[in-house]
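TASK: fixed-backbone design
INPUT:
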């Protein structure tokens, strides 16, 4: 089908996307809640070479803020966020999104028993395959885990084994799709299933390890008792959240079935939801110059000049869709933490550097906590990038201060790195 709607230039689409993500507003006012509302979701990741990934998108938008304050919003007694899966990824979401996830919790429960149900909308496959195996081998085991959490929670997965023994299945796994990575202990499988289905939730993090408890003991009663939307209503609202956060995007970026979608839905469902939002006036069809796919602009998204400088986490919602990053910014970006060291081109934990409305460099960063130093092992400017050294130096000073690191050290030896060293 031919693209329809007004033509939007690539530069306009880029500015709309940046504005929707909170980069079109003054920085440094410390409005953490507003920043979280704009990004819509904070992806969680265990890599800690610089700092945990969920802290970085807020820093990129508001500057120096209290990470302990974000911890309180996420896991404190008066929390405003909760953990669940955004697509297939663990994430922090505003409590207002909890009712929107209930249909997914029920779908996750059905998927364990219904092999025909699409995996696009439910639990991670590690939970599904593990539960099918565990239920056949140890009927009633999940009920025992739930009983233990009820009586003794909050508990980590390692503490949730009913007999106190940590064990994995000793026989070869008959389902090779689970992979060695997901060869979890039985209690881990059971408690993750209870988490996916909403019976337990994440009460806190202990050295970043999940601590589980009954959902009704963790989340506020008004959230749990809020009216539950239908599955169709929930899907529409989730795509609205994605559209507000993306500004302008294709169907695939909004809700396609791939892991890079903002909120994955089966293809037919996604097309139906997009059509309904277009009819309602929430989404406006547009054609982005140079792009083949139909795009949609959030009806309130506007094109404004962008005055920004920010180091972006590899898991920042602005750039987590690598294909979108490529066509919006002409910036081919892949994370290298799983790449063998000899094959890395730009470093290990590489953060793109945003200057105004362009990604102008790749900055490899490491927090050496023992020496209290923010280390820059690699710096790679983009071809034809404008001069950015002064702005990057200022951003690195700000980041070091935010991370309570006393020193900055450039170990890279390129001409750009030498200029940065002088600037620092």
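OUTPUT:
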């Amino acid at each position: 089908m031919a693209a329809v709607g007004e033509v939007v230039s690539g530069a306009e689409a880029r500015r709309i996307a940046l504005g929707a993500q909170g980069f079109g507003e003054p920085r440094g006012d410390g409005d953490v809640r507003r920043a979280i509302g704009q990004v819509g979701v904070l992806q969680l990741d265990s890599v800690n070479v610089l700092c945990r990934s969920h802290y970085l998108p807020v820093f990129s938008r508001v500057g120096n803020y209290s990470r302990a304050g974000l911890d309180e919003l996420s896991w404190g007694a008066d929390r405003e966020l909760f953990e669940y899966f955004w697509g297939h990824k663990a994430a922090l979401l505003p409590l207002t999104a909890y009712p929107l996830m209930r249909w997914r919790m029920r779908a996750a429960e059905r998927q364990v028993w219904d092999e025909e149900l699409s995996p696009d909308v439910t639990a991670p496959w590690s939970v599904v395959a593990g539960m099918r195996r565990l239920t056949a081998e140890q009927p009633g085991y999940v009920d025992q885990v739930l009983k233990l959490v009820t009586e003794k929670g909050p508990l980590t997965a390692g503490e949730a084994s009913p007999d106190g023994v940590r064990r994995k299945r000793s026989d070869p796994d008959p389902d090779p799709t689970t992979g060695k990575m997901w060869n979890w202990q039985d209690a881990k499988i059971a408690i993750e299933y209870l988490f996916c289905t909403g019976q337990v939730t994440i009460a806190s993090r202990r050295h970043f390890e999940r601590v589980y408890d009954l959902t009704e003991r963790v989340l506020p009663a008004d959230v749990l008792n809020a009216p539950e939307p239908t599955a169709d209503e929930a899907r529409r609202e989730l795509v609205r959240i994605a559209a507000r956060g993306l500004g302008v995007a294709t169907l695939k970026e909004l809700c396609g079935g791939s892991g890079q979608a903002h909120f994955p839905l089966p293809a037919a469902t996604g097309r139906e939801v997009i059509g309904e939002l277009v009819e309602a006036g929430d989404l406006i069809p547009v054609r982005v110059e140079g792009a083949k796919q139909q795009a949609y602009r959030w009806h309130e998204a506007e094109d404004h000049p962008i005055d920004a400088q920010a180091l972006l986490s590899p898991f920042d919602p602005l750039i987590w869709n690598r294909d979108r990053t490529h066509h919006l910014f002409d910036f081919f970006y892949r994370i290298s933490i799983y790449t063998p060291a000899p094959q890395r081109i730009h470093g290990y934990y590489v953060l793109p550097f945003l200057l105004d409305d362009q990604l102008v460099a790749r900055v490899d960063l490491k927090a050496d906590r023992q020496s209290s130093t923010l280390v820059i092992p690699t710096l790679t400017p983009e071809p034809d990038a404008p001069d950015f050294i002064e702005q990057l130096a200022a951003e690195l000073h700000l980041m070091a201060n935010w991370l309570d690191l006393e020193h900055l050290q450039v170990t890279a030896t390129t001409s750009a790195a030498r200029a940065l060293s002088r600037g620092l």
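COMMENT: Residues 130 and 136 are 10 Å apart (CA to CA).
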